[in-house]
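Design request, tokens follow.
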């Protein structure tokens, strides 16, 4: 019998021991994570039977010249070794991720990921795009209506965009910029240049709140340039939607701003030439493709305020050109971040009260809408009552995801322009909401949020030249991991440094949230540990595609087939088959 010895009623005990046959003693046994109700012995036996009967049916997934180049075992040997390593040395090498069989699978995962990226990139750069002209006189006109001077970082990114626009290739550029670094004005300038060239532009936002905010800012900016702007979201009435669609098709609308409503089939353009997607990770490849098909290879500008560590950009965004706005607008005072334990909540409330007495506004953020017995988190609704009671002389509002769009809109309007002092909210306000008078944000259960989310939330304050504050309230029983996150928030203001800290703390699986980023599941590869292999893979893929752009050569037959098998329905996105 084999198992971990624990105690039961002060006697040594082994719970759920594994029964080992005599002939297996002294032999290496693999450990698997098995579903409840299934014994590891039965599972191990099943794997052994499956391999005995099916090993010869496994097809090779890497070409011979790659196996030779790196001395990788073929797929049959690699699978067999991973499941049944015959020596202690093999076991140690597999656990340390150094065994050639293990490295082979790391390489393979990264190889096909990089291949898809580079093929997608090739389809963009091979496709004939729109060749725009950049009119210097028009740029001077834009400069006159600018609400502020551009920073060096913003100018550098604009030059990247203009260089793309003057080529007759389709632009696919991602702008990475920290919260409040001024990505929106870059998007507006680029869109106005497209309109000046006779094309229409689209600005796609992930939420109605953000779409409306973009629209309000856009109206002020574009009206000075005689550019017509319109808003299309899910809550626009059918009658108004039909009018907007008619005007769009007739070319009477130059720039349309909206949510997923823009992707609907019956939204047609007279001459779509420029697409901007804000918080691009919220939109899938499929959604972007629908929009692209509404024009003729329009230029695409993606924006994100979720910083990705520089070491990872080449893996995640291998199919895009990346520009980074690496400085903040002048006059921004760094936000002061303070941490409190739950038992010190009143102390934090007192601090907020001092600030509010100076006619400022505050956000109070809570993780959930409804009480959860499981997580014992405060609910926004319950906390709203507490905040109202404590700040009895102040005007307090409550915002959460289950509210109707009209209610949200009215509440945000009252908070921004009216006499509301405090907005109690769930993380609905995380992305892009801009209220310059808000100078303090208090986040309860802060240890429950990811670092990039905390950073996004902190970015809701300090959007003016006044001192701002972020107060993090953590549970008294905070975990070591939670402590480290709070410490990172106190230490770093820079979103990129925080992203790197987040990545180290969470590891790649949690950091990416596969669904959100479009990253496939990686079972062997680790994007943090395998940077060297990533570089090798990048070079190998580039060489292969340089010689054989459509993978039609006999020696690349395995790659072609594997790719078709892995991406059955989406190969059309990157020009294969």
């Amino acid at each position: 019998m084999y198992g971990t010895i624990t105690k039961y009623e002060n006697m040594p005990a082994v719970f759920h021991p594994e029964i080992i046959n005599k002939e297996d003693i002294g032999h290496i046994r693999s450990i698997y994570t098995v579903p409840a109700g299934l014994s590891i012995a039965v599972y191990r036996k099943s794997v052994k039977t499956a391999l005995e009967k099916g090993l010869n049916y496994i097809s090779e997934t890497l070409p011979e010249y790659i196996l030779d180049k790196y001395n990788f075992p073929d797929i049959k040997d690699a699978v067999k070794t991973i499941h049944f390593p015959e020596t202690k040395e093999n076991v140690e090498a597999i656990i340390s991720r150094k065994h050639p069989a293990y490295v082979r699978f790391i390489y393979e995962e990264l190889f096909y990921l990089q291949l898809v990226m580079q093929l997608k990139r090739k389809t963009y750069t091979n496709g004939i795009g729109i060749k725009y002209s950049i009119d210097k006189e028009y740029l001077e006109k834009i400069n006159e209506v600018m609400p502020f001077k551009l920073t060096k970082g913003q100018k550098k990114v604009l030059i990247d965009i203009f260089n793309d626009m003057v080529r007759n290739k389709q632009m696919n550029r991602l702008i990475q910029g920290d919260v409040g670094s001024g990505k929106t004005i870059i998007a507006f300038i680029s869109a106005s240049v497209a309109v000046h060239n006779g094309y229409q532009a689209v600005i796609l936002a992930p939420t109605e709140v953000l779409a409306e905010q973009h629209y309000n800012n856009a109206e002020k900016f574009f009206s000075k340039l005689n550019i017509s702007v319109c808003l299309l979201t899910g809550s626009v009435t059918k009658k108004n939607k039909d009018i907007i669609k008619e005007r769009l098709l007739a070319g009477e609308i130059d720039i349309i701003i909206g949510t997923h409503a823009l992707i609907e089939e019956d939204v047609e353009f007279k001459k779509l030439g420029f697409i901007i997607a804000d918080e691009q990770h919220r939109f899938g490849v499929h959604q972007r493709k629908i929009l692209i098909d509404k024009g003729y290879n329009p230029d695409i500008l993606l924006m994100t305020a979720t910083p990705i560590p520089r070491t990872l950009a080449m893996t995640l965004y291998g199919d895009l050109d990346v520009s980074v706005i690496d400085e903040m607008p002048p006059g921004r005072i760094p936000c002061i971040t303070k941490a409190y334990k739950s038992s010190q909540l009143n102390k934090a409330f007192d601090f907020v009260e001092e600030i509010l007495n100076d006619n400022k506004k505050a956000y109070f953020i809570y993780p959930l809408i409804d009480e959860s017995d499981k997580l014992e988190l405060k609910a926004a609704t319950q906390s709203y009552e507490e905040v109202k009671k404590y700040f009895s002389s102040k005007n307090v509002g409550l915002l959460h995801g289950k509210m109707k769009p009209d209610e949200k809109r009215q509440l945000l309007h009252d908070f921004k322009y009216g006499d509301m002092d405090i907005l109690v909210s769930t993380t609905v306000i995380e992305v892009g909401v801009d209220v310059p008078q808000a100078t303090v944000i208090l986040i309860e259960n802060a240890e429950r949020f990811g670092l990039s989310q905390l950073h996004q939330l902190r970015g809701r304050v300090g959007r003016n030249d006044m001192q701002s504050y972020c107060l993090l309230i953590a549970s008294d029983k905070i975990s070591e991991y939670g402590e480290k996150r709070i410490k990172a928030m106190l230490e770093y203001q820079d979103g990129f440094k925080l992203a790197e800290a987040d990545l180290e703390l969470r590891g790649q699986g949690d950091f990416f949230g596969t669904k959100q980023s479009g990253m496939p599941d990686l079972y062997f590869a680790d994007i943090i540990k395998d940077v060297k292999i990533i570089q090798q893979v990048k070079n190998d893929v580039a060489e292969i595609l340089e010689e054989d752009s459509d993978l039609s050569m006999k020696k690349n037959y395995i790659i072609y087939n594997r790719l078709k098998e892995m991406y059955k329905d989406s190969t059309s996105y990157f020009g294969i088959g």
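Comment from the thread starter after seeing the answer: thanks! The CA atoms of residues 192 and 227 lie 8 Å apart.
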